[in-house]
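Justification of resources, computational component.

The compute hours requested in this renewal are based largely on the per-chain cost of generating structure records like the one below. Each record pairs the submitted sequence with a full structure-token output. That output is archived, and it is also reused by downstream analysis tasks.
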Amino acid sequence: MTVISLFSGAGGLDLGLVKAGNRVVWANDVDVSAVETYRKNLGRHIVCCDIKDVDLAAIPDADVVVGGFPCQGFSQANLKRAVDDERNKLYSFFKRTIEVKRPRFFIAENVKGILSLGGGTVVERIVSDFESVGYRVERRLVNMADYGVPQTRQRVIFVGQRCDVAGDFLFRFPEPGFGKGRRRPWRTIREALDRYPDPDTPNHVKNHIYSAYKLAYRNFTGHRPTDPNKPCPTILARGNGGGGVCAIPHYNGKRRLTIRESAAIQTFPDSFEFCGAMNACYRQIGNAVPVLFAEKLGRELRRIERVLGA
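The structure output for this chain reads:
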């Protein structure tokens, strides 16, 4: 299927969709470093500008609109989150694009905190808004560790299908195959990272550098010890309050994860090169959809395409 990608970032979601055989025809993000990364790895079809300045009529038509609209105002890590947070309104631009371009499907991703914001009224309003422009909507809370991603990352996935596309809702959420009682155990951070050389020794691994931000273990996000025999905690995009990105501690207890290691936890291939300052690279990775999970979504789109073409 052809895809319009909004709030694309470095392109984790888009890369997974492309790996599954779909084609992104237009993408957008406002972050200069993320757009540079996207262009280096995925192509020059991304436009760097504020989505509020985009002429929606000029965007190519496509089968699907995808995007993870900015989630800082929804995140449970934002202790000052509020229903009227200005950042929470950016989903309306996602909705407006769907209303104008009329794709057959859309996929949106956001943080778990969106489910409880305003006592659940915010997520219900978002679903209602999508329904009001002619879409049936289903949503599901998923843990990426259940799909082979070596990370306990919980996200809400919204899928919409235009009401005139088919009698039934065609999209089937991928079945989890990892975890207790399933075919395979969760993948651990050690499994994902043990293949990398020590970043303090000479090597040729791209982006294999790490933040010198001091390890100070305490019971707070990004500062807890990392268990090598469990999936990695959620890779973060937020800063530490002083402007620096709070990279997850390595399980050796001596340093934080490198940019490359963080990307591996998000299932980016080693050939994928991140651009910009160190903090910008960490932020791009923390904002991304894990490539492996995105590929599973992309395969489902391809299945639907075959059903509709039958």
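Helices lie at 12-19, 32-41, 91-101, 121-132, 189-193, 259-265, 278-287, 291-309. The CA atoms of residues 75 and 113 lie 5 Å apart.
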